Structures are given as structure tokens and as C-alpha cells.
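Justification of computing resources. Each target in the renewal requires a structure prediction run like the one illustrated here; the chain below, 198 residues long, is used simply to show the kind of job we budget for.
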Amino acid sequence: GPRLSEASTFIIDQARKHTVEDPLHLVILGSCTNVASAVILDSTIVPRIHVHYLGFWHDPATNAYDKKEFNSGNDTLAVEVLLNTAGLKMDVMTATTSQHLVFTKVEVDRQLDGVGEVGELLLDRWETFDRWWTAEDPEKRQWIMWDVAIIEALIHPEHATLQVMDTPPENTQRPIGIYTGIDVPAMKSSFWAAVGKK
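Resulting C-alpha cells:
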């Protein structure tokens, strides 16, 4: 069942302040648990929210979904709730699309050296974080910036291709948005203009 938590309660409270014309935008970078719980606990928020989800592997040519993806695997039931909620506005930045936004350590060092505390924090994170999910690239020469892709697509819709597709056949049939392409150089330029050396 739904999990009543500080987060799901906060989502419900914030969503109630919004309207169909001006929905609350929720970006899910990991598990869907809190958003799915909020939707189950108060279905009146459904038309007042717009979910932006980072998950799934997806083939745009056949509209085939592979739900065996890291984020989607965190709470498989919650993913199903969101897909099955009729009327829920949902756009998905797939792993298939976001995997192309790769930062190299060389560019990160160049951009973040001497930019202050945020730069130091991000450099330290890169160097010290144990990437437990992969044994590839032990020297951490590059890193896929999955989360940056979805945020940049929201800030600059012109840097991404959003197509309307049907939900998977096992789910409530309805149209959702699927990001099928991103402009990697444009997203990088935008990110570095905000975070890196001016």
C-alpha cells in the first residue's frame, strides 16, 4: 500500500496549491515511492501535477519498454502506479536517451577548477564516490550524467526531443511523453554556463 511519509505529505500539500493550468512539476531522479504514495493517498492531486521521470530502457522505433533499469527497479510497484494512473501527466527521460550525456574527468577538472565551493564539492564527489554499480572505468575517466539530462531538458526543451508515445501494453493505455533524443553539446554548454567557469 501507500507509504505515508513526510515527503508524500509534502507533495500532497504543495500539489493542492496548484491547478490543472499551473501544475506542480515533480522530477523523480530515483524511486517513485513518494509520488506514487501521494497519488494513492489523494487522487485529487493527479490533474494538478506533472511528473518528470528518469527511468526505463526504451526503443523508440518499436515503443518497447524495458523496466529492468536501475531507477525503475528501486520500487517496481510505484512505477506501475504512475503508469496506470489515468490522467497523470508524465514525461520520461529514458536511460536509453540520457546515457549519451557523458562528462569526462578532463572537462570536469577544466570547468570546475577554481570556481569555488560548489566546484570543489563536485570534484571531490567525482574522485571519492564509490561507483559500486560498475566495475568499468575504474579510473573514473568519464561518467554518465543521467540526472543532468532530465534537468537540462526541463530548462531548455529545445535541447531535447519529446515524443508522445503509448504506455507499455501491460499498463493503462494512455499517451505519455518520452524523450527520444538530446543535444549533448548544447546540454553541456548550458550546464557549464551555469556551474563552471564563466
